[in-house]
Amino acid sequence: MEMITECLKEVYDPELGVNIVDLGLVYDIQFVDGNVTIVMTLTTPGCPMHDTIVGGVRRALDTLPEVLSVDVKVVWEPAWSPHLMSDEAKEDLGYMQ
Amino acid sequence: MFRLPFLFIFTGLVSFALFQLFSLFDFATWLTVLGDQPRYPTGWSRIHLLVLGWATMIAMGAVYQLVPVVLQNHGLFSKKLGYVHYCFFAIGTAGLLIGFQTMQVMMIATFATLAFIGILLFAFNIATTLIRANKWDPITISVACSVVYLVLGGTAGMLMGLNFYFQQWGDFHERLLGAHICLAAIGWFGMLITGLSYKMLPMFYLSHGYPVRLQKVVIVLWNAGVLVGASSFLFNGPGWLKWTGLLLIVLAMITYSYHLSQMVKHRHKPNPGVGILWSYSIAHCMTIIGIILVILIPFIPELIVQSRMIVILGWLYLWGWIGLTILSYLSKIVPFLWWTHKYGPKIGKGKMPTMSDLIDDRHVRITLSVIASSLFILLVGLGWNQPMITSVGGSILALSSLFYISMIGYVFAK
């Protein structure tokens, strides 16, 4: 699981320059018999980076030899909120309360 | 979805560069003549190069890019139709500009018809996309209204073209001109900029939890202003009715500016990028100018009667708000478009540049400041009837605009 999380940290939001894990976009990771299911969200419904980021998650995980298949589920509930970001991400963005 | 918006945006950039080059080459004549009397062949040609060749091209490209995004990846009705639309509109606009310049009525009529068919195809494509997605919110409603005004403004323009040939309507031609400007400049561009800003600002400011009720108020006021304004011209209404139209638009601008402030208040990212900061400031400046105008006009009605003042107000609105807002947004839209095309397929395969690496925000800030300052000098020259000041302002404006657009174009080399 640790390995998958580290791999997902290679997927960056190109506008914010912060990876999707630190942005708090990844809600759940499941790994069963080589099949990975990622439940994630985006910073806003109708995010222009929707396809790009989802494609990036697939590509990043495909590089792991242990992974046989990747299923990415984008959900809008619960809605993403800036407080989900890691402290590091908040600092990088100059987070404002 | 890269090629279609890119085609429109690229053509818009080329048109903009051409406009600036023409301005540089003959500013001493047309710019100053334009200050006295804008209605002559070169004036018609230049204004349509700016409004159709540049602003509308960019706006159409932005709509093709952003509408599927706003509809949460609900695809465009037909990309192929988008390319057909491009062919009609680009060829029609190019021929129309030459027709105006050489004052060949048949050429104007033929190519205006082609451009208008392009507009109708665009309207059909966007309307079908929106109806199929059936997702109605202030953004999609604003886009839908703006497209309706583009069609109505184009219709008024077509009728004027017919009258060039048949010379039947006399005074009605002038009334059509007022409605044409009102529908196209205020309706099409105004509703589109306000609508797309509801997406752009929160996205780049990372704004969350802000109230959205005022977006509906803006839509109602803006529509009312455009309809009252256009009707007052079309049916030769009294001066107070035109003023009422302006008042409604200014009230819409006040509400819009206040709403932008609400979004900024709920931001979680202090720096959204220079382009967004500028678009926000420009909206506030235009609101203040609008308020001053609404107050002054009842006391000094000559303000909107003299052709020189109309030219100044036209420059202020078209360049000061629409032009600068488009330029500001381009500094975000073009890097996004290019990044998605070039680096999007590589995301997840290691570190790569961010969008902000594709354009230097410091240069954007400096160049936009020079553009705004030179526009101010140009307007002072026009207002004081000082051709030299007008020419100096116009030349700096053209040079700085060329530099800016080169900077935007350079993104495609990164």
UniProtKB/TrEMBL annotation, chain A:
Where is the MIP18 family-like domain positioned along the sequence?
2-72
SUPFAM superfamilies per record: Fe-S cluster assembly (FSCA) domain-like (SSF117916)
**Gene3D superfamilies xref list:** Fe-S cluster assembly (FSCA) (3.30.300.130)
The protein's matches in InterPro entries, at most eight in alphabetical order, are given as: Fe-S_Maturation_MIP18, FSCA_dom_sf, MIP18-like
- Superkingdom of origin: Bacteria
Protein name from the UniProt record? MIP18 family-like domain-containing protein
UniProt organism field? Paenibacillus crassostreae
- Which taxonomic lineage is given here? Bacteria, Bacillati, Bacillota, Bacilli, Bacillales
TrEMBL record, chain B:
Q: Keyword Transcription regulation on this protein?
A: no
Has UniProt tagged this entry with the keyword Transmembrane? yes
Database matches in InterPro entries: Cyt_c_oxase-like_su1_sf (IPR036927)
Query: What are the TM regions of this chain, as residue ranges?
Result: 7-31, 51-71, 83-100, 106-127, 139-165, 177-196, 217-235, 241-261, 273-297, 309-330, 364-384, 396-413
Q: Which SUPFAM superfamilies match?
A: Cytochrome c oxidase subunit I-like
Classify the source by domain of life: Bacteria
Key words, A-Z: Membrane, Transmembrane, Transmembrane helix
Q: Any idea what this protein is called?
A: Cytochrome C oxidase subunit I
**Organism this protein belongs to:** Paenibacillus crassostreae
